[in-house]
Write a structure and sequence with these properties.
eight-stranded mixed beta sheet; elongated
């Protein structure tokens, strides 16, 4: 199969018929074999019924319905598990991503040899104050911390080699950082393509300002996970040891000073309390390392979601 197209959605019933017809036209014109997997992330409108109607007309359109809302990362992770195409495309369901971009994105993977190609919505139709400016700050921070030179990490329109999506796990709110996760797994040929950004035609955006706060927190998390996810003791143990030794050396110095200087009072010296705090902090970090090590080795079921229904998938 040439293509798998993964489309997470939440309450996008109005846009799905137009989107599916557009995808079908583009892929038929380009003579590509394909499957489209809609991931209904707990919609409360008629999205699932619409997906069922689309699938009845064309069995290349399939669906997974979550029992409740889990988030975009969970939807993408389940879509990646189900995908069978040689190239996997992800896109949003709100018609702001153009299916006309799909053939060129696939070509960059097949002929260009890229592991991932990320869309760049260079010209946007969003409110500049509430979205564009925070996005620029967020993307600059992601580029600096990851070393990946992408302009738009959060663009939903991306293309992947099949091997990439079968080799990574997306959880929490980490969908913004799939290129970073993939790089950490050894997939380093990451490209970018300027893509069309369309104004929203139906409904309203499902994301608020809090996603930017979460985005920065997730950036710190993924940077840590990539470097220390398999060996958290290397981080916690190192800094725990450093703080413990600093505190221990300070306490020894203060005790020795007590005997040298007769008027030296341990209880009146802030340094004594700082030293004790450093020792306790070091011990806590060290113990946290052991706990994190146990969690990291026993969290195989962390990415399991309740699925209410499937269409066209076993």
């Amino acid at each position: 199969m040439d293509l798998s197209i993964i489309i997470p959605l939440l309450n996008e019933g109005e846009s799905l018929p137009e989107l599916s017809a557009w995808i079908e036209r583009v892929l038929t014109e380009n003579d590509l074999s394909y499957e489209v997997i809609f991931i209904d992330d707990g919609s409360t409108d008629n999205s699932w019924n619409v997906i069922g109607n689309i699938s009845q007309k064309n069995n290349c359109f399939k669906g997974i319905k979550f029992q409740r809302n889990y988030g975009k990362s969970a939807a993408l992770n389940e879509g990646f598990k189900a995908a069978k195409g040689d190239v996997v495309i992800t896109m949003d369901a709100d018609l702001q991503d153009s299916p006309d971009e799909i053939p060129e994105l696939r070509k960059m993977i097949i002929e260009g040899g890229f592991d991932i190609v990320s869309g760049w919505k260079k010209k946007r139709y969003d409110n500049t104050l509430t979205k564009n400016i925070p996005s620029k700050i967020f993307n600059a921070a992601a580029r600096l911390s990851s070393g990946i030179k992408l302009h738009d990490f959060n663009c939903g329109l991306k293309a992947y080699k099949r091997k990439v999506v079968k080799s990574i796990e997306v959880f929490g709110e980490m969908h913004r950082y799939i290129p970073v996760i993939a790089k950490g797994a050894g997939f380093k040929k990451i490209g970018e393509k300027v893509v069309e950004h369309r104004a929203r035609k139906y409904g309203v955006t499902k994301f608020g300002w809090e996603r930017f706060v979460n985005g920065f927190l997730d950036l710190f998390t993924i940077s840590f996970v990539n470097k220390f996810g398999k060996r958290p003791m290397h981080f916690f143990g190192l800094w725990g040891t450093v703080f413990f030794l600093i505190g221990l050396a300070s306490v020894i110095y203060l005790i020795v000073s007590k005997f040298i200087y007769t008027d030296f009072s341990l209880t009146n010296k802030p340094a004594f309390y700082i030293a004790l705090t450093a020792i306790l902090g070091g011990m806590q970090l060290f113990l946290s390392g052991f706990v994190a090590e146990l969690v990291a080795r026993n969290a195989a079921e962390r990415n399991v979601y309740l699925i209410e229904d499937r269409i066209g998938l076993s």
